[in-house]
Design goal:
Elements: E1 19-21, E2 33-37, H1 41-55, E3 59-63, H2 66-76, E4 84-87, H3 90-98, E5 102-103, H4 107-110, E6 125-136, E7 162-164, H5 169-195, E8 200-201, H6 205-213, E9 219-223, H7 224-234, E10 242-244, E11 255-263, H8 269-279, H9 282-291, E12 295-296, H10 327-337
Parallel strand pairs: 2-3, 2-4, 7-8, 7-9
Antiparallel strand pairs: 1-3, 4-11, 5-11, 6-9, 6-10, 6-11, 6-12
Length: 340
């Protein structure tokens, strides 16, 4: 039997529209495997179609923002029809794990990925990883090629020259990592110094990279794969912007993950575990590596499209990714310093 959490831990609006493919959003087929996906249909729809063939049961997918779907699951509790939560962000998985909404996965699944990319109690597992990087215009800020710390962008000479996406989940995750690393007071100090530089806000990471590439700003805060996708689309020789990976002990080098877990009490537990195992199969990992430029989390899989460093060789700031669930505190802090 499903267990209902006592209180939701995410203070997130539930009004985002949840779309469905493969079935009616109003009610699931009793024999179907229901996946709540915080990853967009445009990005993961093709691989979830292949997943349906792999698990050999009908699959219904409901799409929405990861934080919204996590809040929805907490609200639904034991009434949810979901069997699998496929999240863009480790924080949303951590929130569900904390409230007992995720079933421990079998070792045959969790052993497929490095320990840093699975929950300590096996309640969720990463499916892909992405690194925070600095994009920069080498004509205006060539020194960024040697940067090792996020603090180095706080130089007053970069006033009005930094781009960021204040509403983007990956920026929120970076700020949360900053809070975990330095405490709320230390994070506030960094954010106030950043805000004093009058950074330019953009709608998303793509726009930040475009602004850096066009010389509109000197530095941008983005995820690695935006640069790789642009380089693949237009040719690396035609991309002016470059990217810099910071040192492994710096929160600006956070590696966050997309991941998945099985909803506690699922009537389709066997198929749900098989679905997550498929997302870690060579077929699925190659799809992500070649189509999205994300880092595969399974050893031995690499991209044939993008020249990505192996994840094991990437310097990255690694924390307990469950701790990224403190989104409410992060959003409150951003609001207080005027960076929303």
């Amino acid at each position: 039997m499903r267990t209902r959490p006592l209180v939701p831990v995410l203070v997130v609006a539930l009004g985002a529209t949840l779309s469905a493919c493969g079935g009616d959003a109003g009610g699931a087929d009793g024999d179907a495997l229901v996946i709540y996906s915080g990853r967009s249909e445009a990005l993961v729809g093709p691989i979830l179609d292949r997943l349906e063939e792999a698990v050999d049961v009908p699959v219904e997918v409901r799409y929405g923002a990861s934080s919204t779907l996590a809040a929805q699951l907490l609200e639904e509790g034991d009434a949810t029809e979901a069997d699998v939560f496929f999240s863009q962000d480790a924080g949303a998985l951590g929130a569900l794990a904390k409230e007992g909404m995720l079933e421990p996965l079998p070792e045959s699944v969790t052993s497929l990925v490095p320990e840093d990319y699975t929950d300590d109690e096996g309640r969720w597992v990463a499916t892909t990883a992405r690194a925070r990087v600095l994009s920069y215009d080498p004509a205006q800020a060539p020194e960024v090629a040697e940067f090792s710390e996020i603090d180095q962008i706080l130089d007053p000479k970069y006033s009005g020259e930094i781009g960021y996406a204040p509403t983007n989940a990956s920026f929120h995750a970076f700020v949360t990592a900053l809070r975990i690393d330095r405490g709320d007071d230390g994070a506030r100090q960094w954010l106030e110094a950043f805000a004093a530089l009058d950074p330019e806000a953009f709608e998303n990471n793509t726009a930040v990279l475009e602004a850096t590439d066009g010389g509109e700003v000197s530095i941008g805060l983005i995820n690695h794969y935006y640069w790789y996708r642009l380089a693949d689309e237009v040719g690396a020789e035609n991309v002016n912007a470059q990217i810099r990976f910071l040192d492994s002990d710096d929160p600006g080098a956070l590696v966050n993950v997309a991941g998945a877990g099985v909803i506690a009490g699922s009537d389709q537990a066997e198929a749900a575990n098989a679905a997550i195992e498929y997302l870690l199969s060579e077929d699925a990992q190659k799809y992500f590596a070649d189509e999205t430029a994300e880092y595969p989390v399974v050893e031995g899989v690499s991209s044939t499209t993008f020249d990505l460093e192996p994840l094991a060789e990437l310097d990255s700031h690694q924390i307990d990714l469950n701790e990224l669930d403190s989104l409410d505190e992060t959003l409150a802090l951003l609001g207080e310093v005027g960076l929303t």
